[in-house]
Amino acid sequence: MTIKEYIASRKQQIKEYVEGLRVKPHLVIVQINEDQASNAYVKGKLKDSAELGIDANLIKLPVETSEEELLKLIDSLNHDDSVDAFIVQMPLPKHIDEEKIKLAVSPKKDVDGFHPLSELNPCTPQGIIDYLHAEGVQMQGLNALVIGRSNIVGKPMAKLLLKENCNVTTVHSKTTKDDMAFYIKHADIIVIAIGKQHFLDEKYEYKKDAIIVDVGISRDETGLHGDAVPNLPVKLQTPVPGGVGLLTRLSLIENLLKIYNKKYKI
Ligand code: GUN
């Protein structure tokens, strides 16, 4: 099953489910940046919501917005009962402390799963795990390698793979070249999220049954590229574009429905 087929089938189920709800789930997206990637994510999230009958609206604020103003808005969204969940799109301008913002969002409305008390997981790692399950991958005992240690992807990804009983290794920018090659050669699952175009290529040796999940996305004059060269000699490799980005968007909707169902005790 390709990612596109998987997404289409889940979306159809979600659409039918939402059609049966009396009150539509309501998602708010707050964006305070002019980041190209963020614009694309936000556009995608609004498009998915419209397609699935979810009520979503964007609050786009100027980049000069102060931390205090943003905290005030978050407080009002936390207390607005008509809003089921909301996200504050990252990255934020430098004068705003992202960690403080993540802690300000009520865990009950934290569809991103960023708050330490949130019962949900961040959308990208959760979307990847759900897809691997849908693909029938038996993860227990596999060597999983996470390349990158960001708070949004690398760290939570490692935690979720550990929960699936994988042997998890995280490597990063300070890992030596020799060690990087060693871990890649022994990995059954590689999740790469470093934003370095075509970092994984033919110079590395891979297990022929390996699975590569490519979270990277970078743009140049020739188009969008992942962190891995397409068509490496492995069993399964997610494409860019049309891969993990779609899983993240689906996962956001799945998280929203979990919040909604808990709120309305469905
Ligand atoms: N920026 C990149 N990915 C994400 C995400 O999953 N959530 C939010 N809020 N911002 C992001």
Question: What does this molecule look like?
Answer:
The protein has 266 residues and is an alpha/beta fold. The protein is built from eight helices and ten strands. The protein has helices at residues 3-19, 36-52, 67-79, 98-104, 123-134, 154-163, 177-186, 244-263; strands at 26-31, 55-60, 85-88, 143-147, 167-171, 189-192, 211-214, 218-220, 223-225, 236-237. The chain has a five-stranded parallel β-sheet, sandwiched between helices. Strands 2-1-3 form a three-stranded parallel β-sheet. The protein has a two-stranded antiparallel ribbon with strand order 8-9. Helix 1 (3-19) packs parallel to helix 8 and helix 2 crosses helix 8. Bound molecules: guanine (GUN).
Task: Quickly list its features.
binds guanine; 2 domains; 266 residues; 5-stranded parallel beta sheet; Rossmann fold; 3-stranded parallel beta sheet; 8 helices
